Amino acid sequence: MNEHPLRKQIEEIVKLNDTEFDFVLEHFQKKSFKKHQIVLHEGDYAHFEFFVVKGLMRVSRLDFDGKEHILQFGMENWWITDAEAFHHKTKSTLIVDCLEDTETLSLTLENKEKLSSELPKMRDFFLKKTTNGYIALQKRILCFLSSNANDRYHNLITLYPGLIQRVPKAMIASYLGVTRETLSRLSKTEA
């Protein structure tokens, strides 16, 4: 029997018995989205944090010139939302959409807080995931500040294995902060 993907991820950090996992799962809602569906518009409240079971999502923002800036991709077993809007209950400044048909387990802030208070193991899990996300964000910022395009490309391949085959090159270029021409040169050196 295949282990549930959410349980597998939680148990990389804390161990749960079957009763505890069933309790955890009761706090999530299964949600399915179609390719190209926007699940969070800029200006909306972020009611959910999404655990991606299957599919691919992204977090992005359009600047005043209409240029897209991709902050994050969310593949299988990734968590994705506008974290600021979700945790502070404010309007989103970001867009979350689906790049493929996507299945998620969605968690409200209220249920996240309830899980954390009623099952301390989950508080430990969420703290560790948040800390790891913060560390990853620091590494991404430092990579942008001090690395060349080639290094950023290699970091992307390491962080998101298989992503290059799943999304258009223009999105990869946006995430890396390079032109499509630069991305073409970088991908040719890989071949």
TrEMBL record:
Pfam family, one: cNMP_binding
Gene3D superfamilies: Jelly Rolls
InterPro entries, sorted: cNMP-bd_dom, cNMP-bd_dom_sf, RmlC-like_jellyroll
Residue ranges of every copy of the Cyclic nucleotide-binding domain listed in the record: 31-112
Protein name: Cyclic nucleotide-binding domain-containing protein
Organism whose genome encodes this protein: Flagellimonas chongwuensis
